[in-house]
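Intended use. Records like the one below are meant for learning the mapping from a protein sequence to its folded structure. Do not use them to infer anything beyond what is encoded.
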Amino acid sequence: MENPEPELADVARLARRFLSRAVEAARTPERPLRRVLLDHLGNDAGSLPTVSASWQPYDHVNVQIALDAWLAASRVRQHEIVGVTGVGMMRHMDVSIADFIMATRDALGRAGAGGVITTAVPCGPGGQTRACVSNGIYLVHDGDVPLAIMLQPSDRGPLHAEVLLHVVGADIRRIEAVLADIRRLAAECSVFRGQVVSLEPEVFGPARLARVISFLPRPAVDRSQIVLPDGLLEEIERQVIGIGRHSGRLLASGQHLRRGILLHGAPGTGKTHTVSYLLSQLPDVTVIAISGRALTLIAQACSMARALQPAVIVVEDVDLIAEERTMGRPGEHPLLFQLLNEMEGLNSADNVTFLLTSNRAELLEPALAARPGRVDLAAELPLPDAAARRQLIGLYQGNLVLDVSSLDTVIKRTDGVTAPFLKELLRRAALLAAEADDRGDSLDGADDAPIRVTDEHLTAALDELLDSRGQLTRVLLGAKQA
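Structure written out for the chain above:
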């Protein structure tokens, strides 16, 4: 009976066989890429016209989707994809299909047609990715017409990060039509359309180049969670939601659609929360959020918004760029002026909303006065008054049992605080009540029992927050300094 267990001799024999096959594969010449292109396009391929188009780096996935859709749109289109081998660092080279055909450099003449390399590119929230071709050439038969299309992500320096599409064929008008179709499909099928995304420079790279797109979940905020003075939210909704809802009739009446809304007020007054509510009411609208270093990419954000409208561009803490200069020559305008100029540059029919927030509107006033008409509504979100504080306590109460008789006293003592302060007040009172339950001071100590907060707990929690030793805590929670 044979021994089924492998022996050392078997391992050695398998290793020799693997090495022999590897050497044989290495010695087998690849198909020269130049020969493959000549066989496909004809021996006069070097004289055929080439037309190129470029996209921003983050559009790699959209170009791939568009190219796939164009190839599948006609039954008479057949294609084969080949990868480019033997050319190192190709993404840093300025090459086209014609360069491979003419062998303009020695390295290009040695290029081979091999396996296709793909890159997993984010295409949706939740970590979704799509395999996108990197430096691949599509050998297309569009009916009886041969075409060659090269998809090439390129990064040839600080100002030249892009995705390129080169098309070679006999009829330049047909080539231009192909590129026009692909560009249209890239916009129509964009994975960013209807999503909430943030646009930001590469974390560990210069602020120039690699535009990184992050998909964010769309906020889910109910209108009942917004506590503002009477009429203020309705005014904001009219400018943001109402104009979009009646866009057709407004355009037919000669009214422009672009708008700028500035929400300003002290930290903690609900600016970001109000923005989140507005975005939750626009489920099919593309949202582009930029902040911090990404404000240098405002031109790219506006370009995306135009292509994906209806769209909202959210710029939080816009006052932070009131004095910050652009990356251009000395004496250039601050980034804020660039932002305002981009807002003005939109077409009157562009359904694009700018939602700006600021903690210090006074820093913006000179720029806004010098660029009138960019902001249509400046809405101040004030500190909550007594009625609003009472409403916020009810909102943040959750499942707490408030067994209190001195709520009026709490409302009076919290004059000048913000919503985060009140939220923390209830949490601290709940924690004090839970600790009392653990000590046996209450019969409500079961794990699944709602916490019962009494006057004692609420007063103790408020005393802690208003204590002079907690000055920094109060500031961080948005309360006035003692």
